[in-house]
Specification:
Layout lengths: L3 H24 L7 E5 L5 H9 L4 E4 L2 H10 L6 E4 L8 H5 L4 E5 L2 H14 L3 E7 L19 H10 L3 E8 L11 H18 L5 E3 L6 H7 L3 E4 L1 H4 L7
Parallel strand pairs: 1-2, 1-8, 2-3, 3-4, 4-5, 5-6, 6-7
Helix pairs in contact: 1-8, 5-6, 7-8
The structure holds pyridoxal-5'-phosphate (PLP).
Pyridoxal-5'-phosphate binds next to strand 8 and helix 9.
């Protein structure tokens, strides 16, 4: 089925692909090192289906209420679903029903809750620890995330948790604090934290960073996964 929306998404996707390819070339990295995750939040299941037809295999959502019915409507497609939003423990059971990877693991209580749900469903769930580069020691970020000095404790908890697999780190470039407006410095810091994590856990090598506005900086720093919404699907209505 070719529609105007299909052409629009194909064009946008090609634009994002060209940006990723150029950023990889500039950084001397092979294109295959970077995986595009399309953030489909606020957009309908029909768009997910079109994107799949255009070759997209990784999608992300940030709210269970929207994501659960969308994932159910797309259950016939071979897609990897990433959950990237702040996650309340009362939503965990639902999220574990469709998510392959939760990128927003940021507290011990969430680890135990995810582990219980993963075990119950008999699935192994990939986990990224969300790092808040603007959070003070022991605090969590405004938009979720563990402070850098809390990574080790959380990583050890995921290591020890049945049903969970530690895949790496994720961040959202901070809007405030010392990294505000300094995406490259923020992503370099995330890479340093990733190196420290990989020193003892080499398999936890995913680094999820970069969105529509700053994917080049993330690729330059070494990100393995970029999460792009607006540049593929269009500007979201407010409240996204
Ligand atoms: C919405 C969202 C994105 C995508 O942002 P765009 O600016 O639309 O590309 C990436 N990561 C997270 C965690 C998000 O919530």
């Amino acid at each position: 089925m070719t529609t105007d929306r299909t052409s629009e998404l194909a064009e946008n996707l090609a634009g994002v692909e060209a940006r990723i390819a150029a950023a990889c070339a500039a950084a001397g990295r092979p294109r295959e090192e970077v995986t595009l995750i399309v953030v489909t939040k606020t957009y309908p299941a029909s768009d997910v289906r079109i994107l799949h037809g255009l070759g997209v295999r990784h999608v992300a959502e940030n709210r269970d209420q929207d994501a659960a019915p969308k994932a159910a409507a797309c259950a016939d497609l071979d897609l990897t679903w990433h959950f990237v939003g702040q996650l309340q423990t009362n939503k965990v059971r639902s999220v574990v029903g469709y998510a392959d990877v939760v990128q927003s693991v940021d507290r011990l209580k969430l680890v135990s809750s995810l582990s219980a749900a993963a075990e119950k469903s008999g699935r192994e769930l990939g986990c990224l620890l969300q790092v808040a580069l603007d959070a003070e020691s022991g605090e969590r970020g405004e938009r979720g995330g563990v402070a850098p000095d809390g990574i080790e404790e959380l990583a050890a908890a995921v290591d020890a948790a049945a049903g969970l697999r530690l895949d790496g780190l994720m961040t959202v470039a901070p809007l405030a604090g010392p990294y505000a407006g300094r995406q490259r410095a923020a992503f370099d810091r995330l890479m340093d934290l990733s190196s420290a994590l990989r020193a003892t856990r080499p398999a936890a090598n995913m680094v999820s960073a970069g969105m529509s506005a700053d994917l080049e900086e993330a690729v330059a720093a070494g990100a393995t996964h970029v999460r792009v919404g607006t540049a593929v699907l269009g500007v979201r209505p407010k409240l996204g």
